[in-house]
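This part of the workshop introduces the protein records we will be handling. A record pairs a protein's sequence with a compact description of its fold. Comparing a sequence with its tokens is the quickest way to learn the format. To make this concrete, we reproduce a full record directly below:
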Amino acid sequence: MTSLWLALFLVGWLTGSLAAQSPTSPTQASALTPTDTVQTFYRLLREQRFTEAFQLHVCGPAVEKMTPQQLAELEPEFLKLIGGIPEKLTTSGETVTGDDATVFVVVPADATPGSQPARTTTAPVGLIRSNGRWLIGDRETQALALAHGGNFFKLSEEGVFVKMTQNEDAMARLVTQLVEIEQVFARNNQGQYGTLPELVTRRDEFREDIARLLASLESGEILGHTITIEVTPDRRDFAVYVVPKRHNYDGRYSFYADRSGVRYRNYGGARIEKDTPGNKTLN
């Protein structure tokens, strides 16, 4: 199990602060390999050169927009973690696939009584290439940092982003279930599909757990998402549309579903269609 300080920096929901320092120049950063980037990031953190460090992280845009007051509020928590960073961070290799990379960092394993020397394991640190340089983190976190600016860390502390991810997982399951519900409805109604209000009204035709689910959708909203089901004029086909009410707060993804399956993508909170470029298929 990775130590606390490393776990916090690996997951991307960072709690941190900044001090006024000279930022790493884009030219210097562009020359760094993924391993160089990870090594430099943690060295700068240990040296408390936070502004420079976050030039090498996807959360950099959020850090740049933080006010002095916001930085001061977060500083005590961040400084608690600095002591856990070893003087020399050891890596055991890296993999690069296009604009994505993983660096493997050697960290202490779970303590074993009487074990000498201390056991170690490796933990992956993900990076992306952005504007010609490697940054620690992922594209989704980068988008959130850009969208929320200085509020990013506050929302992270409050668990907003964890809740958002939970909402997205729940919506993916719900959309899949709605496709199944439509298939059952059509089998019982001569091949005709129903709108969401119709499904809700006739929920007693389903088993008890499905009836409760449909009752919860009576308003057409759930978990910060709006749900619409449209049917063709002959009612022989249908489409499910789901969008977050507050993009990058309630959720990132819009969903589309029909008999062929479920599609989703981050579309700025707008509705997607079956053939919207960039759609991904839900497995």
User: Anything to note?
Assistant: Confidence is low (pLDDT under 50) at residues 1-23. DSSP finds eleven helices and ten strands in the chain.
